[in-house]
């Protein structure tokens, strides 16, 4: 299975506006549309999204282009959205998300998950089996694409970080 981990497009919060549950900016909407065009020919068995508006809005152009529904996965919310979380709490949540996705979609080819920069750092680490490293950060720019591949190698399960924070779909923006 390939797990595509995507950060949402530019939101009002990224643009310096202090609003609760921000929406995408005009630029963020364009980023989401370019991302959808980039991913249009990749087979996805599921499109998952954080329940927060900016993530759903980023997933929508791809879902509409493909005619695939968005499944809201409540645990993909951004760190601190519902109060303070310890680093350990966030990492455990990320590990639960990976386990849930692997259990539910493990025999599928591709799953795409739209979430948030700070959470995605932990999500990527959990997917790669990295359980520590507070000083290690997977950068996630707006609509950056990260691919974690779960494979069998000589009968042994392995994880391969195939791509990290790729934004080539934004080159002409």
Structural overview:
There is one protein chain. A 6-stranded mixed sheet has the order 3-2-4-1-5-6, sandwiched between helices. It has a single domain, classed as Phosphoglycerate mutase-like (Rossmann fold, 3-Layer(aba) Sandwich), CATH 3.40.50. It has 173 residues and is of the alpha/beta class. Helix 1 runs parallel beside helix 2. The model has no long low-confidence stretch (mean pLDDT 94). Strand 2, helix 2 and strand 3 form a beta-alpha-beta unit. Helix content is 34%, strand content 23%. The radius of gyration is 15 Å and the shape is globular.
Which value, in Å, is the CA radius of gyration? 15 Å
Shape: globular
Question: What is the distance, rounded to the nearest whole angstrom, between the alpha carbons of the first and last residues?
Answer: 31 Å
The CATH homologous superfamily name equals Phosphoglycerate mutase-like
Query: Number of folding domains?
Result: 1
CATH architecture level-2 label: 3-Layer(aba) Sandwich
Unreliable stretches covering 5 or more consecutive residues: none
Overall pLDDT level: 94
Report the portion of residues in β strands. 15-25%
Characterize the biggest β-sheet: 6 strands, mixed
What is the string of helix and strand elements?
EHEHEHEHEE
């Amino acid at each position: 299975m390939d797990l595509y981990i995507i950060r949402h497009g530019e939101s009002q919060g990224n643009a310096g506006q202090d609003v609760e549950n921000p929406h995408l900016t005009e630029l963020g909407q364009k980023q989401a549309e370019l991302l959808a065009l980039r991913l249009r020919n990749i087979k996805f068995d599921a499109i998952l999204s954080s329940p927060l508006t900016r993530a759903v809005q980023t997933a929508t152009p791809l879902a509409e282009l493909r005619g695939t529904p968005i499944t809201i996965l409540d645990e993909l919310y951004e760190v601190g959205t519902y109060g303070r979380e310890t680093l350990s709490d966030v990492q455990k949540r990320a590990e639960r998300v990976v386990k849930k996705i692997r259990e539910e979609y493990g025999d599928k080819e591709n799953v795409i998950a739209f979430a948030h920069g700070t959470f995605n750092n932990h999500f990527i680490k959990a997917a790669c089996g990295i359980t520590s490293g507070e000083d290690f950060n997977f950068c996630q720019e707006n609509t950056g694409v990260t691919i974690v591949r779960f494979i069998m190698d000589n009968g042994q399960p392995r994880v391969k970080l195939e791509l990290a924070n790729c934004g080539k779909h934004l080159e002409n923006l």
